[in-house]
Amino acid sequence: MDALVLTVILTSVPLILAATGELIAEKSGVLNLGVEGMMLMGAVAAFAVTSLSGNPYFGMIAAACAGGITAGVFAIFALGLATNQVATGLALTIFGAGLSGLIGAPYVGGTIDGLTVIVVPFLSDLPVLGGLFFKLDLLAYLSILMLGLVGFFLNNTRAGLILRAVGNNHDSAHALGYSVLRVRCVAVIFGGVMAGLAGAYLPLVLTPHWSEGMTAGRGWIALALVVFASWMPSRILIGALLFGGITIMQLVGQARGWEMPSQFLSMLPYLATIAVLVLISRNRNFALMRAPAHLGRIFIGTK
Amino acid sequence: MISMTPRKHISLQRTLVTPVVSIMMTLCVGAAIFAILGYDPLAALYQFFIAPLSRPDQVADLFVKACPLIITATGLVFCYRANVWNIGAEGQIVMGAVCAGGVALFVPGLPDILLMPTMILAAMVGGMAWALIPGILKARFNTNEILVSLMLTYVAALFIDWLVRGPWRDPQSFGFPLTKSYDEAALIQRVDLPGIGTLGQLHWGVVAALVLALVAYFVMSRTLFGFQVKVMGDAPRAGAFSGFCAARTTIGVLCISGACAGVAGMVEVSANMGQLQPEVSFGYGFTAIIVAFLARLNPLGVIAAGLVIALAELGGDSAQMALGMPKVVTGVFKGILLFMLLAGETFNRFQLRISWPALSRAPAARGR
Q1: pTM, full prediction
Q2: CATH architecture assigned to B65-315
Q3: Counting Cβ atoms within 10 Å, is residue B59 exposed (0-12), middle (13-18) or buried (19+)?
Q4: Mutate which of B169, B294, B346, B366 to test chain A, going by most A C-beta atoms within 10 A?
Q5: Which ipTM did the prediction report?
Q6: Do B154 and A217 touch (CB under 8 A)?
Q7: CATH topology of domain A2-290
Q8: pLDDT tens for residues A34-93?
Q9: Directed axis angle between helix A138-156 and helix A2-27, to 10°?
């Protein structure tokens, strides 16, 4: 049972990381649909650098950089050239999937030693919780830490207020003298760094190999998570654990010999995403109350 | 700081030049990436864009490759014109192939002459049903159609995987995940012109695809429905005042694009495979998105755009064989091309003026 809960937690870590980054980008008013592409770039960078250097922490840093640079490409087009954000995000996903496959081609079939478990002294001796929450890897701790920091940043800091202002009404924010594009650029790159780390979690912790398209839609599920969380950081945690649980259900089903074909169990996370989106969007006021008002709108800097 | 002012008039010349410049920019950036990764850029570009067209029958194959892209992208043009973001065409292709396959394999006693029309109808219904799910959810609950249509793509892929490995598998397939082969009447024949003979793999589905694009152009530019789609995409408020219903437009364009994608799936299976297998669409649904944009959301442009992208797809195969590049490298080109097309759109619509930040920002301090 403990092992099962631990698997659920580990499965949800990349979702938390990617969704936290996307949350910041969306709060600033930018809808970056390229999460899947940025995650793949992070995953391949993590695998390549780890297998070359032998140190998974270098791989982690490389993944963060790869994600940030990929997001920078998005920023150049969607912010600098004011292109349609939906289409630019799609381009980023297609580009990231292709480039990661090209970079990763020599590494197919190889394995690496991933991140090791860091045992927190004293706390890990707690009866049940110790084994579950205090014997994890660095990225898992980081995901919770970043989620908390992002929550604090958005609600309790001046910079967080500016970020939300830019996302809610870029014209007003611009009139007040805030640089809309600079705020959004930083937010998008932060989102990319987090997505890169999320991608790194796959080869560094979950499966120690590289394969094309290994994220298998996790980036898209992270996007859905942000909607599910109605742009509130605390709900990202709940949502990610929920999705982690649903993903793990197929393993449980196979282990217990359920009569259902494995393909139907594999459909569960995707079907659950749709169900959750419907539930959240059903009540229009509830869903829109917290959504950044200028999400996805193009801002053209005029003098 | 870049400042942009909308152009008052966009010339036709500029509109036509933009995609060409975008393609050339893509080639430059692609060559640079190949060079960085240690491939010979000129050899790579040759394999991609020249080698696939070195024999006449390969030109026919280019049309064959473009066929599913043209059919699918024609439908997507309606969606994107109406600002409805259906990105799950891949799943709709699969469901079209599944439904048509169901007719071909399990409807006994259908006269040969009725089999093909029934399959086409089934494919349209299958693709349409799959596209209607995000459509109805969007119209009824305001659910994000991007995420729903994409999630359904994964569901469709798993569904066909289950079918061909489970209930629909041919017992005589030696354990391979394949259905029984279709009957002769369920296959799309090669184009066989008297006096010329067959042209490569060219089949009648290609002809149908070209006709479909022409019909779509007529619907888009000459009918009230086409006008409604354009108005609801460009100015939804104006459309609402003139009596167009947003929900009905959303559902309408999703039906069209779902039906087109379904037919594309059916054509692909009936013309090239002859039976269902776990993979019936090799990312055509996603590639068609780029085709639609390269065509500047114009159904006539889809034909040319489909051929250009099909060339890159064939080039991916030849680069894989000649240079040992992985097949996904085509994705790099496709991604860059979409970036360049979108940027081209900006240059087309706006006059860009670049002024250096240090000089221009000085008076624009915070308390201005």
Answers
A1: 0.86
A2: Orthogonal Bundle (1.10)
A3: middle
A4: B346
A5: 0.85
A6: yes
A7: ABC transporter involved in vitamin B12 uptake, BtuC (1.10.3470)
A8: 999 999 999 999 999 988 888 888 989 999 999 999 999 999 998 888 888 888 998 899
A9: 40
